[in-house]
Specification:
Serine Threonine Protein Phosphatase 5, Tetratricopeptide repeat, mainly alpha, 10 helices, single chain
Length: 240
């Protein structure tokens, strides 16, 4: 076979392939480059948006530090309008809710907490909003809904706070034994070095209910105090 003819055939084959597939190949390359540049533009846009949201949130914290709830509210609404669904928008509502609650504006605080919960971008923010909302509802006497929210699962890092809240709710309804069990659970989850642990210990000890053991019958609140406790102590001393 003539090598020259073979090369001509190969060249013709390549030309045919290019005529049939070249445009698609070029389009694929262009689309690929477009996707690459589009992704980079999208990332740059997100960084710019995040920087803008961060700047607004910094302003919000400054007004919060000054105790200016109305100015904070304006910035919160701007965050929601320009950066809705972002973590900054949710943090803004949580910050505003705390300020409003401190001023006694509980109805407004509740509204912002509900919006923060609805717009939470992840489980951590949802847990934060849910626990704060439950505490506020309990303070407003809406204990049934507070109990329901406190019963919902949270990420492990939030379990000590949820257990403490459940203890507070149980103590508020007069169930000292359940409250103590919840506080004990919170202490186990917190660990010995936690600053919050001391507060939980004080709440637990203030109940007046001794810790329960598997081999001992339940002790009602107050059963080990006053005259009954003194008789029990004297009886124990009389034992040989």
């Amino acid at each position: 076979m003539d090598p020259y003819e073979s090369e001509k055939e190969q060249l013709e084959t390549l030309r045919r392939w290019w005529r049939e597939n070249g445009k698609a190949l070029v389009a694929g390359v262009v689309l690929g480059l477009g996707a690459l540049f589009g992704w980079r533009a999208w990332q740059d846009w997100k960084l710019e948006r995040a920087a803008a949201a961060s700047g607004l949130y910094e302003q919000l914290l400054e007004r919060h530090g000054a105790g200016d709830a109305d100015a904070v509210a304006v910035l919160v609404e701007r965050l929601a309008r320009e950066h809705g669904g972002s973590a900054y928008a949710v943090m803004g509502r949580l910050t505003l809710a705390a300020l409003l609650a401190a001023e006694g504006r509980l109805d407004d605080a509740e509204g912002h907490l509900r919006q923060a919960l609805a717009g939470a971008p992840d489980e951590a923010f949802a847990a934060t909003a849910r626990l704060q909302l439950a505490r506020l509802l309990a303070a407003r006497g809406k204990r049934e809904e507070a109990e329901r929210l406190a019963g919902e699962p949270v990420p492990d890092a939030f379990e000590p706070l949820r257990a403490e809240l459940r203890g507070d709710l149980a103590a508020a309804r007069g169930d000292a034994e359940e409250a103590r069990a919840a506080y004990e659970a919170a202490l186990r989850a917190l660990g010995p070095a936690s600053p919050l642990g001391r507060l939980v210990e004080l709440k637990r000890d203030d109940l007046g209910v001794p810790p329960q053991h598997a081999d001992s019958p339940p002790v009602k609140a107050g059963a080990a105090s006053g005259e009954g406790a003194e008789k029990a102590r004297q009886g124990g001393e009389a034992q040989p």
